[in-house]
Amino acid sequence: MIKRITSLLFAVVVAATASVVSAATSGEDLFKLHCAACHADGGNIINPKKTLKKADREANGVKTAKDIIGLMRKPGPGMTTFDAKTIPEKDVKAIADYILKTFK
């Protein structure tokens, strides 16, 4: 009996986790899931000179989606590395496009 209950609870947790991750499909949702903790409203809690605002991005040589993706894949000190296992290519592209569209 306990084994069945444990199995059922495990299945519920797995299903709930999968639905949260699969629900995050838009660039905005993915940004909120992976980036907003440090970059709320386009800011930067680690390095205030490196916000996601266009002027700061461009001052730091980040002008295109490819540039943003490059930083996500191989960031500098203080930023989490988001490899392809963590964020697939189509999702990282959606995040980069969202950043370019949103933080002007």
How would you describe this structure in keywords?
61% helix, Cytochrome Bc1 Complex, Chain D, domain 2, globular, 6 helices, disordered N terminus, single chain, 104 residues, mainly alpha
Walk me through this protein's architecture:
The protein has helices spanning 2-23, 27-34, 36-39, 54-59, 65-73, 89-102. It is mostly helical and 104 residues long. It is globular and about 30 Å long. The chain has one domain: Cytochrome Bc1 Complex, Chain D, domain 2. The protein starts with a helix and ends with a helix. The longest helix has 22 residues, at 2-23. The protein contains 6 helices and no strands. The model is unreliable at 3-20 (pLDDT under 50).
Query: Distance between the terminal alpha carbons, to the nearest Å?
Result: 57 Å
Classify the beta-strand content into a percent band. Answer: under 5%
The number of distinct helices, counting runs of at least 4 residues, comes to 6
Topology as a string of helices (H) and strands (E)? HHHHHH
- The computed structural class is mainly alpha
- Low-pLDDT residue spans: 3-20
Question: The CATH topology is what?
Answer: Cytochrome Bc1 Complex, Chain D, domain 2
Give the radius of gyration: 17 Å
Q: What is the tally of beta strands? A: 0
The biggest beta sheet reads: none
The CATH class turns out to be Mainly Alpha
In total, the number of domains comes to 1
> What's the architecture, going by CATH?
Orthogonal Bundle
CATH superfamily: Cytochrome c-like domain
Average pLDDT, rounded to a whole number, is 85
The percent of residues in helical segments reads 55-70%
Overall morphology: globular
